[in-house]
Amino acid sequence: MTEEDLGSFADFGGDGDDGEDASAKASDGTDVDADAGGERGRERGRGSSDDATDATDEAGDAFERVAYEGASGDGLGVLAVSEGLRIGQREDETRLRAYVTSANRSNVRLGRYLVAPYPDGESLFCKIVGLEYGQRFHGDDANEIHARRAMDGSGIDEDDYTFIADLEPVSVLYRDGGELRRRMPDRVPKPETVVREADDDEEIKTALKIPDAGVFLGHLAVGGEKVRTGATPPTIDYRVTDDYATGDPLAFRHTLVAGGTGSGKTHTAKNVLRQYLSTERTYPVEAGSDREVRAAVVQFDPQDEYAQMHDDNPEAGPEDERRWEREGVAYGGHDDTVAFVPTVGNATYTAAHHGAEQIPFTVPFSMVRSRPWLAASAGLNDNQYPALQTLLSRFFDQHGDAGTYREFCAFLDDPALKEELDESGRIHEATYEAVFRRVRGMPNGVFDQDARPITELVEQFVKPGRLSVVPTYHVSDSRATETVVLALASLLVDEKLSSDPRFPRIAETPLIVGMDEAHNFLADADTVQARQVVGKFTDAAKQGRKERLGLFLITQDPQDVAESVFKQVNTKVVLNLGDEDAIKSVNIPPALAEKVPYMETGQMVVYSPDNSEPVELLGLPTCLTRHGRG
């Protein structure tokens, strides 16, 4: 048979049978009524009429369709029990499915939140994790006729199909003394319970364990669209706990912002840091103290972008500001922003893109006394590192804290010293020479430059309510950059963890240390030098909650951050990442991890087990401070 033999199916108006069906019916003696052919096509498989009279009656009455224009009330459909209705302790033991009525199907999306009430007033809060069409009637639609009709644009009749949503229970909601509370799913709802889309702010926040107050990150979303409610504003703000009354502030249990180029990583980081700098956000000076102060934020900035937080965003209009005020979001340039600019060799720093004050500084070689790993240009092995410690100790015993890098190099370039240490068996000659080469290989101009030492600027560098930015974009040598950043970061960490701090200002001030491109500074490595650095920051991460020290790590390569540091991070903010290893490393639930490569700019997944259920968010489209150099 050719396509010409089939002719145009439009002539049949959807009411006739194809040639093969007609021949088959004629051969078994069945009386065929052309006007009823379409309806019998839908009934095919249920059995034929017993006689011609029954067939005639069926043709005359036709199939009476349910008159349905939409869901009654707020319902999307009902819980179906055809394949069982079960809630188990394990995910693979749970079977929870809802039949979605035809009028509601086009608006249903994966990830949407639904509510199924119990008869006693409690309710089950669920998430859609699967959507499926099924045939309502037995039949075969994989044939030429169905295909041609569909290609002619006649569409489908939704009543011919079932539409099932697979649900994952999240929590049970109940009232206790008038207060809405949540507990783990522990009871199965009734069959044919009407399910509705969650649209109440209190209901959604309680079910997902989202705090009412704290540091603003963005708005709850599903599939890149904000979740809407009937409240004003209609969006649901997501916040991170920041109050000792409900546990340790998560700022001091560390945050990771991970995202690829163009994902909105820096934009997001600026917006979060702006909240920590709010005049209303304070923390106790020490545990149990009644006196509270604002946190200091120190941000290491390899791309020279964060000093812009001093300035208002010229792209933010009055409507943006009204919206932020309604939602209690801190916005606008932060006046107390200072750029602490490292003086390294001949590097020069220009700052036409921001209006923040600039203070130049240098790293004094005296900082190496307690941080030997700063003095070597390459990795040291287990023999070389103790040798370097011995040499530094002997040098500073002779020169005091005034000793410089140049003087140390001259100190090492002494054959008599090398011979003495070799003959005494303290440092082998080969080890001595290896240490000397690494010390001499340090980039030019890192230590003791023509600027005030950072140790003399601590009172200005760490100040409650101040954003201190350390730009390093102007320093072309990556090893010099690494030395400066680790020198300052370790100074902050050491003082925070010390039982006898040299700088009480650091010890007494709640502190958030932001580190962009964190993978460059906190990477796992085999050298003793790298192990010393990672060990220091691991200790800082472990004790941060006690010492009011928070790490705010920003990276596009989270898989390169040392695991011992990474596993101490409680809050992970994950934007678009295209690398499979990077996605695996952030260790977020699989259902959310699958979304990460497809997320648009500003879309993010937040995984903070001590704050809320894992959720998808949309960040603010407009930065709260100046952003970009355009």
Automatic annotation (TrEMBL):
<feature type="region of interest" description="Disordered">
    <location>
        <begin position="1"/>
        <end position="56"/>
    </location>
</feature>
<keyword id="KW-0347">Helicase</keyword>
<keyword id="KW-0378">Hydrolase</keyword>
<keyword id="KW-0067">ATP-binding</keyword>
<protein>
    <submittedName>
        <fullName>ATPase AAA</fullName>
    </submittedName>
</protein>
<dbReference type="GO" id="GO:0004386">
    <property type="term" value="F:helicase activity"/>
</dbReference>
<dbReference type="InterPro" id="IPR002789">
    <property type="entry name" value="HerA_central"/>
</dbReference>
<dbReference type="InterPro" id="IPR027417">
    <property type="entry name" value="P-loop_NTPase"/>
</dbReference>
<keyword id="KW-0547">Nucleotide-binding</keyword>
<feature type="domain" description="Helicase HerA central">
    <location>
        <begin position="250"/>
        <end position="488"/>
    </location>
</feature>
<feature type="compositionally biased region" description="Basic and acidic residues">
    <location>
        <begin position="37"/>
        <end position="49"/>
    </location>
</feature>
<dbReference type="Pfam" id="PF01935">
    <property type="entry name" value="DUF87"/>
</dbReference>
<dbReference type="InterPro" id="IPR051162">
    <property type="entry name" value="T4SS_component"/>
</dbReference>
